[in-house]
Amino acid sequence: MTEYRPALVVIDVQNGFITPDSAHVVPVIADLAARRLDAGGRVVFTRYRNYPGSPYERLLGWHGLQGPPDTDLAPELAELAVHPLASMTDKVTYTALDDAGLEALEGFTDLLICGIATDGCVMKTALDAFELGFTPWVLADACASNATRHNPQTVHEAALMLTGRLIGAGQMITTEMALSLLPVGAQ
To answer: Is 23 inside a domain boundary?
Structure first.
């Protein structure tokens, strides 16, 4: 039997993704990450960076998050990201499980996933985690959508429904439930 090794994965809580509709999750995530680090556990932060000529530019017409201050982590998380038990990976895709992300998460069995946006990077990371053999847990109250063309709350709820359908409805949990899955001293 494989030893249980959970990691908290904080997806793209960056200035450029924080909107009035997603800002409410920042203090929830900051509290959870601080508790995890204080308990001696690992937290992996991701930071998305768009680049000229990316598929996001070419196919979606989206030119955001190409540099600071948009690419910077929310101030509440920036100090946590330099903690000795924290790591940061930069990515240029929806998933946090690119080569750098997989390296940062090597040896972990369960990924407790939170961040922005539920309907993009959070969902894609959860699906990839499922397919790569991790046990993904999506922290529903610590995720948000920053959708602009549709109602962000409706998009968030739809993403949670679809993600739960694809990885298991029982994998959609709250931060309170997540705290019980993050044992003290488990790195």
So the answer is: yes
For residues 26 and 83, what is the distance between their CA atoms, to the nearest angstrom? 18
Residue 96 lies in a domain: yes
Tell me the sheet residues that pair with 110: 6, 135
**Cβ proximity of 29 and 179 under 8 Å:** no
CA-based radius of gyration for the chain: 15
Nearest CA among 2, 87, 42 for reference residue 185: 42
CA atoms of 53 and 39, how far apart (whole Å): 42
- Assign 22 to helix, strand or coil: coil
Range of the domain at 24: 6-181
- CA-based nearest residue to 122, from 167, 154, 63: 167
Give this prediction's pTM.
0.95
The whole-angstrom separation of Cα 23 and Cα 62 is: 21
- Map residue 8 onto helix, strand or coil: strand
Number of H helices, E strands in the chain: 7, 6
CB 145 within 8 A of CB 159: yes
d(CA 36, CA 33): 5
Q: Which amino acid is at 37?
A: L
Instruction: Name 158's Cβ contacts closer than 8 Å, sequence gap at least 6.
Output: 119
Residue 107 has pLDDT above 60, yes or no: yes
- 186 pLDDT band (50/70/90 cuts)? very low
